Structures are given as C-alpha cells and as structure tokens.
UniProtKB/TrEMBL annotation:
It comes from Mycobacterium mantenii. GO terms for biological process: tRNA modification. Its EC number is 2.5.1.75. InterPro entries: Dimethylallyltransferase, IPT, P-loop_NTPase. The record marks S104, R125 as: Interaction with substrate tRNA. ATP binds at G8, P9, T10, G11, T12, G13, K14, S15. The lineage of its organism: Bacteria, Bacillati, Actinomycetota, Actinomycetes, Mycobacteriales. This is tRNA dimethylallyltransferase. Gene3D superfamilies: 1.10.20.140, P-loop containing nucleotide triphosphate hydrolases (3.40.50.300). It catalyses: adenosine(37) in tRNA + dimethylallyl diphosphate = N(6)-dimethylallyladenosine(37) in tRNA + diphosphate.
Length: 319
C-alpha cells in the first residue's frame, strides 16, 4: 500500500492531522500506522520539549520510531533510514497504510528516497566523541580544519555533531568529507507527500504558545531528570532545541539553580531558535516539487476537516 507522508515546519499540526487521517481511512476500511520522522522524538524521556504525543493521546493507533534511543546515544540518519524503512515495509505488508510524520529534513528525505550513506564505525565515532568531551567543539573543529579545510568551512564551529561525523568519515574513507556525501537515488515508494504550512505571523504566534506550554508543562524538570540518564553525554540529544537552552540556564545558575532571568532567557532563546529552524524547514521542503501543500492557518472545525479530506484525497490520487 502506498505510504502517505505528512511533512512541514514545526508547529503546523502534523501529529494531529496524522491521527485524524488514520481515523478517517479506518472508516474507509483501511487500517493505518504512524512512523515518526522527528529526530528528537526518537529519544526516551524527551517528551515535553519535543511535543511528543503521550500514549493516551495516540487514539489507539500504532506508532513507530518513538522512544527507541537513550539520550546518550547518537541519532544518525543512516540508522533511522534502515529502521524506519523496515517499519514502513512491514506496515504495508500487513495491508495497512503507513503514515510518515515529521519535520526532520534529512530524516524524511532519506526515508522517502533511496539514499546511500558513507561508512560508519561506532568505535571510531566514539573515539571522536571522547575527544570532543576532552577538548570541546572549538578545538575539535580546528582539528577538522587541519584535516579537511573545505569540510570545516562548511560546518559551523559550534556544530559538534557534524564535526564529529566529518572527522569519522575522513578517517574511515581517507577522502574529504564532501566526497562522501550521501548519494540520492530514486524514490523508495510511490509516496503521497502532503506539506502543512500557514502564514508566518500565524505560525510565529503558534510557536510562541508552544514554547510557553513547554516551559509551563515542566521542560526544566524534564531536563533535570534526564541529566541523571546522561543527557550531557549525548552529542545529539543535549543539543536539541529547548534542551540545550535549559542546560545553559542550569549551568549559568550553578549550585543555587537558575534565576528567573536565566530561565526567561532560556525560554526566549528556545523560541528564537525554533523560529530559525522553521525558516530552514520551509526552505528545504519547498524545493521538493512532489509535495502537495495545504494551508493550516484556519481555526474553524469545518476548515480543519477540509485539510483532513485533502490529505486523504492526495493519498487516494483524487484531485
């Protein structure tokens, strides 16, 4: 059965639409299962800051690729691609509709299209991650600049994850990082791709409310709890939006804990960082001409139902 992908910027309601579509197609006699494509929702315990749907809110619909990593593990596109593709194939083999949902750009494209990735070696990566912990991202980036100046020029000096990956690939292949870029093949399936977006002003207001809700619901407490599970050691998890900002506030506060001003700054920086990320998501997704875009700026139930109808029609090839 052909998959349906629901993609788009953060805050556009992808998770809720996926649930609504799953219930709608069930009334048509088709079961549906959902495959997560949000990199940070892969992590156990990272719930509030990723807006992960709690089990009781999933309406009994099976979800895959949620809570599959510890915060100390590094999320990689290659690992996700293999695991998520297997999920999609298994769902389709059961005669159900696979609904792929998320906004992590590389994760989605690597799943929908047949990407091949350069080699990876956990031991080599772990060695570079230990080196990162010893000398910090600035010095590690300088090491990359000595080994592969072009790669260093294309990676921000603060981007620890990509710096580690570049050093790993250079060591394994003996080639510049750019020479080992993923090779993009043909589409993996005949996927119907629906994109959600809305007016920037409306979305910014939603992002502000979303950020408020994260802090009100206990993001700071969630981060503190994850520290006991090794959050600081997680190269990917510790740099997630919201989590990185709260960690910075906790560090600034010291033993006495963060001040109200430091927490306000974490709140503000989380909002600004999310807004910047949304701009990047839009730029990336708009390049894919397969996407059928739906405006989700409406507020009425009837208009929301229209979006569900449009998504189902896209999947059924109905114009």
């Amino acid at each position: 059965m052909r998959p349906l992908a629901i993609i788009g910027p953060t805050g556009t309601g992808k998770s809720q639409l996926a649930l609504d579509v799953a219930e709608r197609v069930e009334r048509l006699g088709v079961r549906a299962e959902i495959v997560n494509a949000d990199a940070m929702q892969l992590y156990r315990g990272m719930d509030i800051g990723t807006a992960k749907l709690p089990v009781e809110a999933r309406r009994g619909i099976p979800h895959h690729q949620l809570d599959v990593l510890e915060v100390t593990e590094t999320a990689t596109v290659a690992r996700y691609q293999g695991a998520a593709a297997a999920d999609v194939e298994a769902i389709a083999a059961r005669g159900a509709l696979p609904i792929i949902v998320g906004g992590s750009m590389l994760y989605i494209q690597s799943l929908l299209d047949d990407w091949s990735f350069p080699a990876t070696d956990p031991a080599v990566r772990a060695r570079w991650e230990r080196r990162l912990a010893e000398i910090g991202v600035g010095e590690l980036h300088a090491e990359l600049a000595r080994r592969d100046p072009a790669a260093a020029a294309s990676i921000l000096p603060t981007d620890a994850r990509r710096t580690v990956r570049a050093l790993e690939v250079v060591e394994l292949t003996g080639q510049p990082f750019a020479a080992s870029a993923p090779q993009i093949g043909a589409p993996r399936w005949d996927t119907a791709i629906v994109g959600l977006d809305c007016d920037t002003t409306i979305l910014d207001e939603r992002l502000a409310r979303r950020t408020d809700a994260m802090f009100e619901q206990g993001l700071v407490g969630e981060v503190i709890a994850l520290l006991d599970k090794g959050l600081r050691d997680g190269v990917t998890a510790s740099r997630a939006l919201g989590y990185a900002q709260v960690l910075a506030a906790l560090d600034a506060g010291g033993p006495a804990g963060p001040s109200a001003e430091q927490l306000r700054d974490a709140h503000e920086q989380t909002f600004f960082g999310t807004r910047r990320y949304v701009r990047r998501q839009r730029s990336w997704f708009r390049r894919d001409h397969r996407v059928q875009w739906l405006d989700v700026g409406a507020a009425t139930p009837a208009e929301g139902a229209d979006v569900v109808d449009a998504a189902v029609r896209a999947w059924r090839h109905v114009s």
